[in-house]
Amino acid sequence: MSVENMAETFVQLADTLVADFDSVEFMHLLADRCVDTLEVDAAGILLADHHSELHVVGASSERTRLVELFELQHRQGPCMECYLTGAPVTVADFTEPPQRWPEFSAVAAEAGFRAVHALPMRLREQTIGALNLFTAAPGALSSSTVRVAQAMADVATIGLLQAKLLNQQELLAEQLQGALQSRVLVEQAKGVLAERLQIGMGRAFETLRRYSRSHNQNLSKVAESVIAGTVDVTAWGDPGTPG
Q1: CA-CA to 202 of 20 to 30 Å: which in 63, 67, 101, 169?
Q2: What is d(CA 224, CA 79) in angstroms, rounded to the nearest whole number?
Q3: What's the whole-model pTM score?
Q4: What are the pLDDT digits (tens) for 1-60?
C-alpha cells in the first residue's frame, strides 16, 4: 500500500463528492479503490434503506455481489452484524472451525475467499451500512490497513449523508433511497445487456459502466435508456469497448 496510491484514492473519492453526484458509480469506485489501495481481493458495500433493510449497492466483482446477496437473504453473517452493532467484525478464516456463520462461510469459501473484514459506514451514532473486504488468503488485515479502510468508509459515509445539507432524517432517507432505486435500474440494465449481447452479468456491468464514462452520462440514466430501448446496444459492437 503505497503513499501515492493512498493519496490518489482519497483525492479521487473527494473529487466525486459534488452536488448531485452519481451514488451508484461512487459506491463502485469505492469498492474498486479498496481492492487497488488496500491489496484485498474483493470489496462489497451494503447500505440500509429507510426501513433499515440492507442492500448490496457496490461490489468489485460479480462473485462478491453474490456472496453478499446470500448473506442478506439468510439475514445473518459478519457484514450484517457489523451494520447492526456499528462495530468492525473479522472472520480470519472461513475454513477454520468453529464457524459462527457456517452457511455463509461455506459460500464465501466456495467463491474463493478465506477471510472477511467488515467495517461500519458510520457517522457519529448513525450507521448506514458496511464496507466489506474479502481476501483469498486467511488472516486479519494489519492495523494500518484497517485504519486506512475505515477512513475510506468514513469518506464514503460523509459523501452519502452530505451532512451540511441533509440535517433531517427525511432528507437522508430520500438520498439513500435514491441510491437504492438507481441500483435496481442498473441491475435490470445488466440483465438486458447480458441477454442481448450474450455476455455474463459481470461483463454486462463493465460494458454499461464504460459507456457511461465514455459518454459522460450518469450511470443510472444510461441504465434507464438501456431498459427503455432508447439506445441501440447492438451497435456497441465489442462488449468490451461500447461505442
Answers
A1: 101
A2: 30
A3: 0.70
A4: 555 566 666 666 666 555 556 777 778 888 888 998 888 999 999 999 878 899 998 899
